[in-house]
């Protein structure tokens, strides 16, 4: 069993991220997404909220394995914010949201 850290140090964060990305690379749904640069995410067919949920589930699992409970919750909370930001940038569509791209004065 891997060590469980009680403080969020550089070593602890490195261990969590290394273990997490190893899991992600082996995951059939997430592996192809994480093999590309962030700009490539826009070109990935099938990117969806479900993939973000899978990413967060693997990250939370890894945090719980490697960190004390309160640290795991803190780091997972940060990941949730990152996922929300990425989803907003990748999945938000003004057209689908019912917004026009025209300035308000032209409507």
Structural account:
The protein has 107 residues and is mostly helical. The chain has a single domain, classed as Orthogonal Bundle (Globin-like), CATH 1.10.490.10. The protein has 4 helices and no strands. Helix 3 packs antiparallel against helix 4. It is globular. The model has no long low-confidence stretch (mean pLDDT 79).
Give the gist of this structure.
The protein is mainly alpha-helical. It is 58% helix and 0% strand.
Key features of this structure:
single chain; mainly alpha; 58% helix
Number of domains as seen in the coordinates: 1
Structural class: mainly alpha
What is the gyration radius calculated from CA atoms? 17 Å
Order of SSEs: HHHH
CATH fold descriptor: Globin-like
The count of β-strands is: 0
What is the CATH-assigned architecture?
A: Orthogonal Bundle
The CATH class is identified as Mainly Alpha
The whole-number mean of residue pLDDT values reads 79
Percent of residues in helices comes to 55-70%
